Amino acid sequence: MAHVTVSAKVAPELAHRISQTGYSTSDVMQVGLDIFLNLTAEQQAGLMWKHIQRKKRERAMERCRNRREAIQLD
User: Fold this and answer.
1) H/E element holding 62?
2) Three-state DSSP class for residue 16
3) What are the phi and psi torsion angles at 73 (to 5°)?
4) pLDDT tens digit string along 18-70?
5) 35 sits in which H/E element
6) How far apart are the first and last CA of the chain?
7) Residue 56 and residue 48: Cα distance in Å, rounded?
8) CB 19, CB 25: distance < 8 Å
9) Quick one: 71 exposed, middle or buried, by C-beta within 10 A (0-12, 13-18, 19+)?
10) Coil, strand or helix: which one is 40?
11) Which helix or strand (DSSP H or E) is residue 19 part of?
12) Considering only CA atoms, which of 19, 56, 65, 13 is closest in space to residue 48?
């Protein structure tokens, strides 16, 4: 079987949690992918919806934090 390298950006906290498991990052990612891909399409869609909403919320919070910092520097 041919292998393909896949990369993903993750928060430092998540990378730290992965390293604390004692398993390789690659193995943890493969297990996560297997679990996700074995879900029904509806379950996958639900998880993706939550993930996208979380990303939007985090971006909005970061923008707000940056604005506050910019105002404080003025």
Assistant:
1) helix 41-73
2) helix
3) -75, -20
4) 999 999 999 999 999 999 999 999 999 999 999 999 999 999 999 999 988 88
5) helix 25-37
6) 58
7) 12
8) yes
9) exposed
10) coil
11) helix 12-20
12) 56
Report the C-alpha gap between 42 and 46 in whole angstroms. 6
User: Collapsing DSSP states into helix, strand and coil, what is residue 6?
Assistant: coil
**Residue in the structure block whose two tokens are 């074995």:** 38
pLDDT at 17: 96
d(CA 37, CA 59): 27
Task: Please report the pLDDT score of residue 73 as a whole number.
Answer: 79
Q: How many CA atoms lie within 13 A of 51 on its CB side?
A: 8
Measure Cα distances from 24 to 5, 19, 32, 42, 70 in Å. 14, 7, 13, 30, 40
What b/e string do you get for 54-65 counting C-beta neighbours within 10 Å, with b at 16 or more?
eeeeeeeeeeee
